[in-house]
Amino acid sequence: MYSEKVMDHFENPRNVGKLEDANAVGEVGNATCGDIMKIYMKIENGIIEDVSFKTFGCGAAIATSSMATELVKGKTVEEALQLTNKAVMEALDGLPPAKVHCSVLAEQAIHAALKDYSEKTGIDLGLPESVHEFDCASFHKSMNEENKK
Amino acid sequence: MERNDKMKTVYLDNNATTSIKPEVVEAMMPYLTDIWGNASSVFYEVGQKAEAELIKLRESVAKNIGAKNANEIYFTSSGCEADNWAIKGYAFANKRKGNHIITTKIEHHAILGTCEFLEKHGFNVTYLDVDEAGIVTPEAVEAAITDDTILISVMMANNEIGTIEPIKEIAEVAKKHKIAFHTDAVQAIGHVRVDVTDLGVDMLSISAHKFHGPKGVGMLYIKNGTRIDNLIHGGGQERGKRAATENLAGIAGLAKALDIAVSDIDKNMAHMQKMRDRLINGIRERIDYIKLNGPTDERRLCNNVNFSYEFVEGEAILMRLNMKGICASSGSACASGSLDPSHVLLAIGVPHEIAHGSIRFSVSEDTTEEEVDYVLETMPKIIDGLRAMSPMFEAFEEGKLESFTKKV
């Protein structure tokens, strides 16, 4: 069901835990849908010096969080803003169709942390007014319709 | 999956399926080798032999479920087929009498899916609520009866939370109102005594692989005098009610497994209950913020343990258990690939948040104390590990989120 890379990041997640000296925090998802991702970042001079996560969710949710933190660690905030769910998926050698939304959530969690940084520092990152909140209910509905085809 | 090949597998998913007993395989073998004839081809000895065997097997099954006549036993390909047949077959054959069916919100999807199909074909279905233990009361069933009600279907034992329903009492209500009554007894065989005459049911479904028989064979008991249309049309097998050349090896497997399940039931129930309680008590002692889903008394199946673990998600728990060689199942949405967590957990009032964190362990007569203790040693580490990375648990510890379950 899952690739070896997904299993590796599930079994040995990287960058887990609360970052005590974080200066940017982002959280997306909700418990009703079964996924919450929280990203902590320590950003110095526009560079993500450290990053960590906490995730409530399935194996794919944990693996995508882990991979997303790996992909943005040491990057500039501008580079991190370019992170897409597709890049997270590719880095994990793919996800089952029903789990694609986990990678979307990971992308959004990273963006939410960057938005928090932008708001706290007043540095304009050119982010849209509101970071698009992932709507899991409508996503699942569309997935179910897709599956029926 | 990262697993040590030498690691022992601890199989605690016996509500999903059971291992096939060697005696059952042995009982099936003659029908895969020497007795290969078609039981309907009775003009020569090869077929006659198969027919004679089929008669014996049917009689054995009838005796073991308390049916008065062997001709009330109809073999099917599965419990799912038996359920589909009972509901659709009865509804279509009796639609002139009425178009209303009563069932419950916690039935297996074989019943719920069939009822939803019938709703598209002019039938009305009432899905009864259950209480927090999953119980359907005879009073609730009676209150739902209308002039159009033709059929009531209530499962004997729930597969997810182990609730044993008051089938005999509900059957009495049905009888009083002259309404046919079906029960899905797929999870009951081997765990609860099942006697169709004592229960007073008109139809009852079973599936061999849930009691150490083979997959691909089930049975529908249909009391004589019950009008039912075919689900599968074609030849004259099963008294013309269910076409398809009989799966003699499968039927022999079902008959043998049933025979063992019935004769060993007292011994097995006592053992399973002991293992079940060791698990329930052990988990309660070792893990906080949990909720036992389903009844806490004698109305619980002797082999079912279902807890919700707050702040963590079921699929992740399953994957961690698998890393330790433990097989279980979950009612989380992620584990089922759908939007919502288990319909059964939602029906007993478990909130979405903690329904996602549910894990079912189901033991068998083969489960050992050693296996249970291994689970009790492993499970707290898994829950602690996942909680340590859960933002919900962090919020709870910081006082920003309340626990549903409190400390047990």
Give a concise summary.
Chain A is α+β, with helices and mostly antiparallel strands and 149 residues long.
Description of the structure:
The complex is a heterodimer of chains A (149) and B (408). With 149 residues, chain A is α+β, with helices and mostly antiparallel strands. Helices cover 46% and strands 18% of the residues of chain A. Chain A has six helices and three strands, in the order αβββααααα. Chain A has helices at 4-11, 59-72, 77-81, 85-91, 100-121, 136-148, and strands at residues 24-30, 35-44, 47-56. In chain A, strands 1-2-3 form a three-stranded antiparallel beta sheet. In chain A, α1 (4-11) packs across α2 (59-72) and α2 (59-72) crosses α5 (100-121). Chain A starts with a helix and ends with a helix. The model of chain A has no long low-confidence stretch (mean pLDDT 90). Chain B has two domains: 22-263, Type I PLP-dependent aspartate aminotransferase-like (Major domain) (Aspartate Aminotransferase, domain 2, 3-Layer(aba) Sandwich), CATH 3.40.640; 266-397, Aspartate Aminotransferase, domain 1 (Alpha-Beta Complex). In chain B, the strands form three sheets. Chain B has a seven-stranded mixed beta sheet with strand order 2-8-7-6-5-3-4, sandwiched between helices. In chain B, strands 9-10-13-12 form a four-stranded antiparallel beta sheet, with helices on one face. Chain B has a two-stranded parallel ribbon with strand order 1-11. In chain B, β3 (100-104), α4 and β4 (124-128) form a beta-alpha-beta unit. In chain B, α3 runs parallel beside α4 (109-119), α5 (138-144) packs parallel to α6 (167-176) and α10 packs across α14 (369-388). The radius of gyration of chain B is 22 Å and the shape is globular. At the A-B interface, α1, β2, β3, α2 and α6 of A face α10, α11 and α15 of B.
